[in-house]
Inverse folding.
């Protein structure tokens, strides 16, 4: 009886402490999803699919125009509709922003971050490219780095990373008070844990 009472008190204490300090640890959950970008001049810029409003493509094009790499590799095998592929929308936007078709490459089989890494790695090895900048959305960058570093381990390819700001959520501040932000943060955390268990353990 005493042990049960002590356990109840402990649980209640944890809940109260978590509630009291939520303004400290809840923001940290969102902040942990993003890594510090470290883009360095490379052979190619890999742009991951899954963008909401073209933010990843726009960030990659900006890097391209700033001379970080001479070509872009768009990686996405998903369909937007029965006749429109996501990767085609990304390349169309890149061309609209001034990137010549000769500088654009595509990988259109991947349906996950892991497959993004797996299939682009093969392209880089086939092309003889030795370095790449990976572009994704900021809140997706930690999982992206975790997966790419694992898949590219021992390949000799040097990776760096650049993050695009999410155009849907200007900020993830107070994410626990916004249903859409909640979905973004909690879903990404769930995927981060699953990927760690599935691919890294």
């Amino acid at each position: 009886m005493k042990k049960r009472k002590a356990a109840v008190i402990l649980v209640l204490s944890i809940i109260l402490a978590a509630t009291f300090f939520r303004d400290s640890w809840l923001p940290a959950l969102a902040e942990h999803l993003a890594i510090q970008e470290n883009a360095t001049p490379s052979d190619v810029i890999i742009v991951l699919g899954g963008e909401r409003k073209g933010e990843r493509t726009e960030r990659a094009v900006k890097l391209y125009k700033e001379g970080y790499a001479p070509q872009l590799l768009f990686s996405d095998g998903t369909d937007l509709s029965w006749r429109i592929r996501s990767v085609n929308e990304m390349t169309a936007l890149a061309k609209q922003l001034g990137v010549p078709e000769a500088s654009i490459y595509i990988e259109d089989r991947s349906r996950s971050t892991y497959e993004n890494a797996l299939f682009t790695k093969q392209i880089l090895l086939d092309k003889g490219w030795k370095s790449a900048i990976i572009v994704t959305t900021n809140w997706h960058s930690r999982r992206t780095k975790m997966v790419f570093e694992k898949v590219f381990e021992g390949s000799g390819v040097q990776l760096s990373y650049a993050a695009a700001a999410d155009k849907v959520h200007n900020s993830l501040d107070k994410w626990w008070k916004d249903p859409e932000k909640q979905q973004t943060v909690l879903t990404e955390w769930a995927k981060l844990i699953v990927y760690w268990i599935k691919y890294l353990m």
